[in-house]
Amino acid sequence: MSPVLCRHDQPHLDAIAAHSVDWCGRDLDVVQWAKTPSGAEHHAWIDESGGSVIRLTPGRRARNGHTAVVDLVASPDAPTVDLLRVVTGFADQWTALERLELAVPADHAVIASALGLDFVVEVRQDDRYGGGRDGLVLGRLRPGFRPRAPAPAPSWPNRESVQPPPLPPWRFRPIEVHDAEAIRSLSVEPTVLFGTLQSPSSGVDFYADRNLKPRPGDFSGVLDIGGEVAGMGGLHPSGVGGVRILGMAVAHAWQGRGVGRHLLGMLLDAARSLATRRVELNVFEDNSRAIALYESAGFRVEGARRYDAIRAGGHATSLDMALIEPSS
Ligand SMILES: CC(C)(COP(=O)(O)OP(=O)(O)OC[C@H]1O[C@@H](n2cnc3c(N)ncnc32)[C@H](O)[C@@H]1OP(=O)(O)O)[C@@H](O)C(=O)NCCC(=O)NCCS
Questions:
Q1: Which of 13, 41, 64, 122 could link 59 by a cystine bridge, Cβ 3.0 to 4.6 Å?
Q2: For residue 210, what pLDDT is reported?
Q3: What is the Cα–Cα distance from 292 to 276, expressed in whole angstroms?
């Protein structure tokens, strides 16, 4: 049994941190892992030799609390099956987690161990780590897990009944604190709850706080049409150099009128100016209109994360889509 990570393991973490990008393709902030006690926000173990660490972080949102991300920092050929077995055993015996997710470069030896512990390859990510290094996302459902079907999509605005007007003057601008009320109304509309991970329990203060504290490296804004927030979108850091995660939503009253296509175009322009080599996003498999929009812009489906979100009383599966080298 691998020991639980403790503060006195800090020297090991300092040594492991120096290899994180090389081993895992991304800069995992391992040095911090022992600073938050294992058992609080995350659960972490170190192998007997002190050469590899693993961490389990449960989803923090209402709609993904049944899932957890597994982060592993180990050399590509390290024997990691024991660390992985500790994590899966802990999840199955001591938690309510239904789904675990592990993202690693496609050449990592942990993949063989994971496949032996009921993980399946769900997503193949083209050139995710740069220099032609692909990535894999492996997902594991709790043995015996029985998904519930979510309710179908709410009705979308009928495009034929909407005269496509020439858009009035509009601009993409940074989010301001006073936008919280408009962002909340947009976010809790049934079609946006259907298409995103927003929660109807989130109040204005939640959105105001989030607008005040953007994550480092975050590029987000609202689409302002004549002073009205018609949509919002952003490019968020992925932890991997040159890779950004795209998210967007259009207010119900503006859907089906060309706003989403404009917004996506602006976000892809921003991605290019930020020297992004890969834009990725996550979309529910039954969100056909969003999928059609992304496919028409060149995004390609890379796989499906099984039952990774709660939606309308059931478990929904999302697709990973990516656009390599976004060009105009
Ligand atoms: C998905 C969404 C962003 C699209 O924006 P939009 O402004 O409604 O879409 P547009 O009017 O710009 O249309 C763009 C494309 O979307 C698709 N689309 C839009 N409305 C559609 C509808 N009612 N039925 C089918 N396809 C539709 C079409 O492919 C369309 O391209 P086309 O006009 O060349 O046929 C928007 O509807 C939305 O915010 N939905 C709720 C939140 C969400 O799902 N966000 C995406 C998370 S991944």
A1: 64
A2: 84
A3: 22
Which of 236, 246, 255 maximizes ligand 1 atoms within 8 Å of its Cβ, making it the mutation to test the pocket? 255
Task: Grade residue 77 by pLDDT with cuts at 50, 70 and 90.
Answer: confident
Cβ burial 107-116 (10 Å sphere, 16+ → b, else e): ebbbbebbee
Residue 283 beta carbon below 6 angstroms from any ligand 1 atom? yes
The answer regarding whether domain 7-141 maps to CATH 3.40.630.30 reads yes
With a CB cutoff of 8 Å and minimum separation 6, the contacts of 8 are none
Which tens digit of pLDDT belongs to each residue from 260-290?
Answer: 999 999 999 999 999 999 999 999 999 999 9
Which residues lie closer than 8 Å to 127 by C-beta, 6 or more apart?
Answer: 133, 134, 277, 278, 324
**pLDDT higher than threshold 70 for residue 162:** no
Question: How far, CA to CA in Å, does 205 sit from each of 54, 62, 180, 184, 251?
Answer: 34, 17, 7, 9, 19
Q: State the distance from the centre of ligand 1 to the C-alpha of 291, rounded, in angstroms.
A: 8
pLDDT at residue 213 in the model = 81
pLDDT tens track for 220-248 = 999 999 899 999 999 999 999 999 999 99
- pLDDT given at position 325: 86
Q: So where are the chain's domains?
A: 7-141, 159-324
Note the pLDDT tens digit of each residue in 252-262. 999 998 899 99
Q: Give the chain's largest Cα–Cα span.
A: 67
pLDDT at 87 over 90: yes
Establish whether domains 7-141 and 159-324 are of one fold: yes
Give the CA radius of gyration of the chain.
21
Q: What is the CATH number of domain 159-324?
A: 3.40.630.30
CB of 258 closer than 6 A to ligand 1?
Answer: yes
Atom 37, ligand 1: residue with shortest CA distance: 255
Question: In what helix (H) or strand (E) does residue 316 lie, and over which residues does it extend?
Answer: strand 314-324
Q: Compute the distance from residue 150 Cα to the ligand 1 centre, in Å.
A: 21
